[in-house]
Amino acid sequence: MPAPGELTFTAPRGAKKPPRHLADLTPAQRKEAVAAIGEKPFRAKQLSQHYFARLAHDPAQWTDIPAASRSRLQEVLLPDLMSVVRHVSCDDGTTRKTLWRLFDGALVESVLMRYPDRVTMCISSQAGCGMNCPFCATGQAGLERNLSTAEIVHQIVDGIRALRDGEIGTGQDAGKGGPGTPGRLSNIVFMGMGEPLANYSRVVGAIRRLTDPEPDGLGLSQRGITVSTVGLVPAMHRLADEGLTCRLAVSLHAPDDELRDTLVPVNTRWRVREVLDAAWEYSARSGRRVSIEYALIRDINDQAWRGDRLGRLLKGKRAHVNLIPLNPTPGSKWTASRPEDERAFVAAIAAHGVPVTVRDTRGQEIDGACGQLAGAER
Question: Is the peptide bond before 215 cis (omega within 30 degrees of 0)?
Fold first, then answer.
């Protein structure tokens, strides 16, 4: 049975589960898996070192493991999970979007964005999405399946390797060596394909793998991880009990239930006030400010009075509003707000003393809105 707050997902008849992978398992489970094929348990730690710390995925590089054991260990704990369909880059090479094909043919996306002071990676937690938000390409495609913990983690592992190997540029005007300069990942956002809290256990498992100390995990900071949700209230309460210090981002998109019922259909189940109350609980337990994500859509949700209403809801709370100029999908009636409407909306929120910023728009040249690249491939 699903855990409280976790939505159910019925796989298509005959669908296979993703192959078991090192990143799906706890350190103790890895030892058990290694011992089950007659290998010494300490080989599990060696494999973890190669995968998480050294990013050495070719068995030929595992020189501390007998050659006769490498292929068997790879088959059992490091099977191929996903392959790159293609990379597309823009912004002078500082933004790279990757389309992945999973073992069963499902398509997902991840994006690496390099700024002068940080590197952010946006990752997927599901193939498709079941939330059905009408302005989102992924939501309109529907849900295909949940990703495994390892399929989530491997997107980040590959991103860290790409940065280490200098595959992500610094921009022609950055003055720091241009493309080919190694970099370090600083932020991870669960804002790619899928609703993370609808794949709760695997997303939390991924966060544990990302933040466990090397070699058990990648040794990243929880404070650099943001988990986005459209507002699955029971799962938000459950997340507050995990003892995490990740940031929570709430994709609100409307301050009133009447409009949000249309833009975010799950709002018919959990209303704006319920969603925000759950967010404040998470903030109190984690000590982190909540990010309120709001896609500005021309003549739909960008009226100044809605900005005022949003400011009133958030006044005095530990929150920051992140306004997102909509990156329209091909053929969609939804498009970005006019500059003057955007400015008025910002002013209406700021009048209540609520911090508000407009997100840097990246990736428009490369089907930047989540789900567009996968949709084009289909």
Answer: yes
Residues with Cβ within 8 Å of residue 175, at least 6 apart in sequence = none
Q: Say whether 253 counts as a known binding-site residue.
A: yes
Q: Is 252 annotated as a binding residue?
A: yes
Q: Which long-range contacts (CB under 8 A, 24 or more apart) does 201-208 make?
A: 201/3, 201/6, 202/125, 202/146, 202/147, 202/148, 202/149, 202/152, 203/125, 203/152, 203/227, 204/239, 204/242, 204/244, 205/24, 205/149, 206/23, 206/125, 206/149, 206/152, 206/153, 207/244, 207/246
pLDDT (tens digit, 9 = 90+) per residue, 101-141? 999 999 999 999 999 999 999 999 999 999 999 998 888 88
Sequence-separated (6 or more) residues with CB below 8 Å from residue 253: 133, 260, 263, 264, 293, 294, 295, 297, 301
Residue 48 CA neighbour count, 13 Å, CB half: 26
* Partners of 283 in beta bridges: none
| pLDDT single digits (tens) 174-202 | 444 445 689 999 999 999 999 999 999 99
Answer whether 0.90 is exceeded by the pTM.
yes
Q: Which residues are identified as catalytic?
A: 109, 370
Q: Is 322 annotated as a binding residue?
A: no
Domains defined for the chain, CATH in brackets:
22-77 (1.10.150.530), 82-377 (3.20.20.70)
